Every structure is written in structure tokens, then in C-alpha cells.
Amino acid sequence: MKECRSIEMKMLEWNWIILLPMKHSTSTSLRKISRCFCVILFVPIFLGAQENQRDAEGRRQGLWKKYHPCGSVRFEGTFRDDVPVGTFIYYHEKGAKRAVNEFRGSTGVCYSKQYSQEAVLMIEGKYIDQKRDSIWRTYDVQGRLIMEEEYKDDKRSGWSISYHEDGSLAEKKYFENDREEGLWVRKIENGTTVLRAEYKEGVLSGPAKYWNTAGTPICSGNYAHGWRTGWWIEYNEKGRPAFRVKFKRGREVERKSI
Q1: Using one digit for the tens of pLDDT, what is the confidence trace for 24-70?
Q2: To bridge 204 with a disulfide, which of 120, 127, 136, 223 should be the other Cys (CB 3.0-4.6 Å)?
Q3: What is the pLDDT of residues 146-161, one digit of tens each?
Q4: Nearest-angstrom CA–CA distance, 73 and 93
Q5: Domain's final residue, options 98, 129, 160
């Protein structure tokens, strides 16, 4: 009997539950079953994983959770040797999912989806070592794609393209090291170009031309260091040259009829 009791206590220490068939409710029957160990099924008791643990070297290990001041979970995810792995989930204060970050092993590559309080996907893209990389996409509340931007080392590097509600091109700019460089184009929903200009080191520089929504030219000329400069042409409602206008640092200094 002492031996059976010892085994039962040991099983409790190991956090196991013993499920035994019970044909009789008497204590004698239970003792007989205990002695025979007939059809014993071991089921591990779930013990909540300890949170926010560090190893001897101070590295985060296992499940980590952080909380908003109101007490709700801010994020939860798993670390291995201080490196995030697997899935990290971030939450708004009221509990709605704010972002889901999927890490590719311990490479530092992370694919992120970010949501509004109404659980609508708003932004998605890739991080490398916590910096935005490659193409990032932005959506409106209806789920329509409204912008695509290329990143490298958390800076815009490549095309930045925005879209109208119908999916047609609205604006297109090129960036280098987070500054506009080269072509800048704007269009309306029917595809008509209303602006075409160029940037250099983040400021307007070089030829530019503007059109109205009917596609008729309004004016054309050059920029230098962000200012209209030199002679510009202004067009009449039929799209024919009407005036030559001289600019100096963005200010009109002379006007002539054509």
C-alpha cells in the first residue's frame, strides 16, 4: 500500500493525471484498481509557459509579452538567443490585432501585415533587421491598393507609385536614398497626364510641363534648385503658346505676348 501511495505521489510531482476505468465507487475497488494499474492513461497537465525570461547572458529566451498601460497585451512572440523567431502579434489597446510579423528563422527577415482597429489590412511589406526593405503596399479601408513604395535600409529607394480608387496610376516618383530623383508624373483617372517634371537630389530641377484635365497644356519651362527659372511658355485654352514669361528664383520678372 505504501508503494502504491508513493507511486501516486510521484505521478503528482510529475504533473500527470491518472485516468482509470471506474466500474465501482467503493474505496476497495479503487484500491484494487490502483494495485493493478489497469488501463492507465497519462495526460500532461498544461502549464503556462513562463514569460519574459532571460538566460545567464541576459538574452531573451522563449515567450515574451508586453502590455499597454491599461493592462491589455501590446505584443507577444518568441525569442531565441535574443533573436525574434516565428510569429509576433501586436495589438491595439482595445485588443484588436494591430500587426502580425512572421520571421523567417533567425535571419532577421520579417514579413509584416498591419491592421486598422477595424481589422482591415492597411500596410504590408518586408523588414530586414527591423528596417523596411523591398516593396511595401498600402491599402485604403475598402482594401484597395493605393500605394506601392520600394525601400532599402528603411529608406525609399526606387519607385513610389500611388493609385486612384479604380486602380489607375495617380502619381509616380523615383527615389534614391529617401530623396526624389528623376521623373515625377501625375495622372487623373482617365489616364491623362497633368504634370511631368524631374527632381535632382530632392528638389525640382530640369524641364517641367503642366496640362489641364482635358489634356491641354497650361505651361512649360524649367526648374532650378526648386524654383521656376528662365523663360516659361503659357498656353491658351486651345493649347497654343500665348505668352513667354521670365522667372527668377520663382518670381515673374518679365512677360511677352507670342
Answers
A1: 443 434 333 334 333 323 333 333 458 999 999 999 999 999 999 99
A2: 223
A3: 999 999 999 999 999 9
A4: 8
A5: 129
Domain of residue 19, residue span:
2-44
Closest CA to 83 of 129, 22, 33: 129
Nearest to 53 by CA among 62, 44, 45: 62
Asked which of 87, 110, 129 is the last residue of a domain, the reply is: 129
Give the DSSP H or E segment for 8: helix 2-13
Residue 60 falls within a domain, yes or no? Answer: yes
Residue 37 in domain? yes
C-alpha cell at 3: 508503494
Q: State which H helix or E strand residue 7 sits in.
A: helix 2-13
The pTM of the full predicted model, rounded to 2 decimals, is 0.75
C-alpha to C-alpha distance for 42 and 11, rounded to whole angstroms? 9
User: What cell was used for 228?
Assistant: 521656376
Cross-strand bridge partners of residue 149: 136, 160
Q: What is the distance between the alpha carbons of residues 193 and 168, in angstroms, rounded to a whole number?
A: 12
Cα–Cα distance, 198 to 206 (Å, whole number): 6
**202 grid coordinates:** 530632392
Contact 59, 52 (CB under 8 A): no
Distance CA 163, CA 158 (A): 16
The total number of structural domains in the chain stands at 2
Domain presence at residue 246 = no
Q: Is residue 102 part of a domain?
A: yes
